[in-house]
Amino acid sequence: MKSLLKTLLPMALLAAGAAGAQNFPGDKPITIVVPFSAGGPTDRVARDLAEALRKPLGGVTVVVDNSAGAGGSIGANKVAKASPDGHTLLLHHIGMATMPTLVRNIPFKVESDFEYLGMVNDVPMTLIGRPTLPPNNYRELTGWLGQNKGKINLANAGVGSASHLCGLLFQNAIGVDMTTVPYKGTGPAMTDVIGGQVDLMCDQTTNTSGQIEGKKVKAYAVTTSKRLAPPALKELPTLQESGLKDFQVTIWHGLYAPKGTPAPVLQKINDALKVALKDPDFIKKQEGLGAVVVTDRRVEPAEHKKFVAAEIAKWSPVIKAAGVYAD
Fold first, then answer.
1. Other CB atoms closer than 10 Å to residue 234's CB: what's the count?
2. What percent of the chain has pLDDT over 90?
3. Contact partners, residue 27, CB within 8 Å, separation at least 6
4. Which SUPFAM superfamilies does the UniProt entry name for this protein (predicted)?
């Protein structure tokens, strides 16, 4: 009898899961958790994606829930502990790769406590300086950096922010230590770059393109493998072509579900994601943010997970060497 129960119980659970998946999403709303405050770049991406997902998911309501704090780990933990039914998802950026090293006592495992659904976009970074900085191009900047070791300060939007991570990698790549100046957000950091209180910052195009176009800052390079298309950025060299081999930083976003979400549900969400990423309105909105919608194999769950594992390997030694943590 016991052996029969052992055989029948998994079959019953599998059948129940398949029935639930067949009806997914039903009329229950889907919540996309954003582990950062409302109004920031990741929040804007999530709201655009929520709108684009509604139609391929049968018109179901898709809402955004902001759960900020602890380097993005509070919101991520909320999803890791949520019911694995496909109705609670996580939209996270490069923080999925930096949290394992950056956040002390993280209450989940990035690589095993989530189902990976696919990548959404890449946001390029730009290296900018105060308008009164003497160098006028990247080649002049490298000489100036070498002549002013110990005197240069580098702004960022806070520990663990995109600008902080890019700045750490840049210092490592050029072998010049700078005085890091953390701010409570990009806004005040940018204000001080424009005002000349700090020398340099490496930040997302979502935050820098307007300042570059308005000539409020000096722009030196982009962190992508190829030059960018927007008029304000197309003349900027890449750091790779400027001599920093393999230097590439983009602030990517990916979509995740709790571990144990049924495979048919994951497939439905991934199918909907692929449709959303081809939505002309979504693409236009992302281009307006300076972001590039993902069209390569990273839209597949396995490739998404493989990419994040490579990013963890890339950022872990950089963060450990800097000795920084997000509390």
1. 10
2. 63
3. 60
4. Periplasmic binding protein-like II
* Architecture of domain 26-123+251-322 in this structure: 3-Layer(aba) Sandwich (3.40)
Q: Enumerate long-range contacts of 271-277, CB under 8 Å, 24 or more apart.
A: 271/56, 272/53, 272/56, 272/57, 273/53, 273/117, 273/118, 273/120, 273/299, 274/118, 274/299, 275/55, 275/56, 276/49, 276/52, 276/53, 276/56, 277/52, 277/120
Q: What are the structural domain ranges in the chain?
A: 26-123+251-322, 125-222
Pairwise pLDDT comparison (42 vs 154), residue with the higher score:
154
Interval 262-313: pLDDT, tens: 999 999 999 999 999 999 999 999 887 778 999 999 999 999 999 999 999 9
Beta-strand relationship, 114-122 and 253-258? antiparallel
SS3 155: strand
Give the Cα separation of 307 and 49 in Å (integer). 21
Radius of gyration of the chain (CA): 21
Buried b (16+ CB within 10 A) or exposed e, 145-155: beeeeeebebb
CA pair distance 119, 256, nearest whole angstrom: 9
- State how far the Cα of 149 lies from the Cα of 37, in Å rounded to an integer: 36
Picking from 167, 161, 182, the residue whose alpha carbon sits closest to that of residue 72 is: 161
Alpha helices by DSSP H, 175-257:
186-195, 205-213
Residues 254 and 119: beta-carbon distance below 8 Å: yes
Q: In angstroms, rounded to a whole number, what is the distance separating the alpha carbons of residues 166 and 224?
A: 12
